[in-house]
Amino acid sequence: MRLKYPSSVKIVRVPCTGKIDILHIMRAFEKGADGVYAVGCMEGDCHFDSGNFRARKRVEQAQKILHTIGLSGERVQMYNLSSSEGPLFAQIAREMTEKIRKLGPNPIKLAVKKAA
Amino acid sequence: MIVADKKPIEEIIEEVKDHDKILILGCNECVTVCEAGGKKEVGVLASALRIYFLNQGKEMKIDERTLERQCDQEYLDEIRDVADDYDAILSLACGVGVQFTAEQYFSRPVYPGVNTCFLGATEERGLWTERCQACGQCVLASTGGICPISRCAKRILNGPCGGSSNGKCEISKELTCAWHLIVERLKSLDRLDDYEKLFPIKDWSTDRAGGPRKVVREDVQL
Ligand code: SF4
Ligand code: SF4
Predict the structure, then answer these.
(1) Alpha-carbon distances, residue A4 vs A9, A33, A36, A91 (angstroms)
(2) Which residues of chain B register pLDDT less than 70?
(3) CB contact under 8 A, B8 and A70
């Protein structure tokens, strides 16, 4: 399809969104990621039954933690689509990039620079 | 196992905010199983605290370590040579682990990162319920394996009380009456005769009423 999506999006492939741990999300922010989003299969269509529900729970947990420590919870999101929806994948990437652009960069990057 | 719950991050921030170098110390046993203080929880908390303090403009060294157990000296000894690198330890073990760590590392503050709740079992993922209050004189043999001390709100030994209705306890419609469970179990074991026997007055001196307890086992002492 050769669809375009923003080059700022780095894809980390996992066998199933159920593999995504809250720790992966937190570490990504600690390392300076501006946002993290999980793209899983449609709810009810998980090959492993509940992987995408687990992912959603963890995304919600990460949102709460980020909110508590003063980073917007909005920076973590969960999306669901089916594997045949390439155009939707590109659209989500644009949507998320736009959302994050509005929120601005991860403040930790600035803090690290200041500390250095 | 000992069941604990996470403390809110805000509370933990308050505990450690004046320190510069802290070690977050997890425990591989009970608190790992109840997902409150194992290696993963240590990692998530460490990340969250690092992000928080960096954003506050405070440079804090926050390291992670998880021991097999914190209620055993041999495992606590594993941090003996690094403990001096920190000015506080944040322990995610149960209250036993926190205290034992504090005793072993007397010169630095040790803070609790979890709330220790009870002795219980995992009913399902994310649901833990109380099963034992460590009364020191187990009565399960006569109660069909169901503990009236931990599961009856009044800890009564010759129940049920008058507050039991339709199998539920008067303190909550959600709570099954322990004595209802006991009678049902004895019935299915064909041991209702046991129910007829009156429990003598329980010796509560082995419970917390007798003050802090200890177990001395000369047979295994070296
Ligand atoms: S320190 Fe507490 S949580 Fe850790 S193994 Fe001992 S009793 Fe269990
Ligand atoms: S009778 Fe005492 S020791 Fe036995 S399960 Fe109940 S509280 Fe625990």
Answers:
(1) 11, 21, 19, 9
(2) none
(3) no
Mean pLDDT score of chain B: 96
Thinking of the domain B2-118, which architecture would CATH place it in?
3-Layer(aba) Sandwich (3.40)
Domain boundaries, chain B: 2-118, 133-207
Say how many Å lie between the CA of residue B172 and the centre of ligand 1.
31
d(CA B15, CA A34): 28
The ipTM (two decimal places) reads 0.94
For residue B182, the ligand closest to its alpha carbon is: 2
Which of A86, A76, A90, A95 is CA-nearest to residue A38?
A76
* Residue B143 three-state SS: coil
The answer to whether the beta carbons of residues B89 and B111 sit under 8 Å apart is yes
Alpha-carbon dihedral sign for residues B104, B109, B114, B116: positive
Delimit the domains of chain A by residue range. 17-115
pLDDT tens per residue across span B170-182: 999 999 999 999 9
* B206 DSSP 8-state letter: G
Strand partners, B6: B114
